[in-house]
Amino acid sequence: MVAVKAHQAQAFLSSPDPKIRAVLFFGSDVGLVAERAAAFAKSSAARTDPAGELLRLDDADLDGNPERLIVELGTVPMFGGPKIVRVTAGRRINAAALRPLIDDAALEGMLIVEAGNLKPDEALRALFEKAAVAAAVACYADAAQDLEALIRDMVRAAGTSISADARHALVERLGADRALSRGEIEKLLLYVGSAREITLDDVEAVVGDVSELALERITFAAAAGDTSRAVGECGRAVSSGESPQAIIAALQRHFQRLHRVRAAVDSGSTLDDALRRMRPPLHFKQKDAFAAQCRLWTSARLTDALGRISTAAKAARLTSALEEALSERLAIGLAMMAREGSGRDRR
After folding, report:
1. Residue 269 three-state SS
2. CATH class for the region spanning 144-208
3. Within 10 A of 342 (CB to CB), how many other CB atoms are there?
4. 2-138 maps to which CATH number?
5. Cβ contacts of residue 131 below 8 Å, gap of 6+?
6. Which positions carry the signal peptide feature in this UniProt record (predicted)?
7. Which residue, 129, 186, 219, 235, is most buried by CB atoms nearer than 10 A?
């Protein structure tokens, strides 16, 4: 019976209890969940002689063979090491399906499950926290000390060093998601190349604010009409510590920029010219998506959208207890407005 809190995760992973045969990685930081699951699978395989066999399964693998997971993990291998089976919670891979394996301790190999943010009373989390041979490991947004350890390890592995002020600035800009943080550090290391030390100027030149990147994913999804992604990114950002009112403010800034560009096009400017005059300028990777949104929305509908955003912003300030629900409802409403207009002709 093991419930591993976020700050205990590294210690658990470094020296897991040998009797543990099933581990659930869950939490709001999807990148960290995947990273820890992959690392634990690799280390579990290496702990046996002969080495364990890594196997990845998902719902689709079980559609035609519902018993496959039980067979893979419940059979003693005749040759080679034990099976290390890594799965993602879903339609078929859930508490009901896994309970016979875990409650009966019928695991000849190692089961590793990845899941999103689970409440304490959710069946899958409760199953792993209460079973004698299982553990549930919480994976939430990195604290400063976690980020410093990640930076230190990656910089050392690259054969370089980082100045104290550069490290501090880097920590300030990371943390919303482990995968994003790792990507930003990799980008920085690629930028400095063979330099002996990473400086503050290097960090400021290439590393974006990961919190801002998280907000951009929400605004671009909502403006493009991608309802499910907008809702998912909203929940992910809030779970990582982002303020719902910051989400509303980001949506307001994005739609104001869309409105200005759309108004310029309606006044006779070409879309390329209007985009080129934007200040601050768009990142080149965002240009095509933003241009598509400008074609999707009319000035009149953007005015309606901005009115909806203003109403939500005021309500969130007056009723802070409802701000999370208001930000999510706003993202859904804007995405639905985009979808409603997707079939109409655009200039």
Report:
1. coil
2. mainly alpha
3. 12
4. 3.40.50.300
5. 1, 22, 102, 103
6. none
7. 219
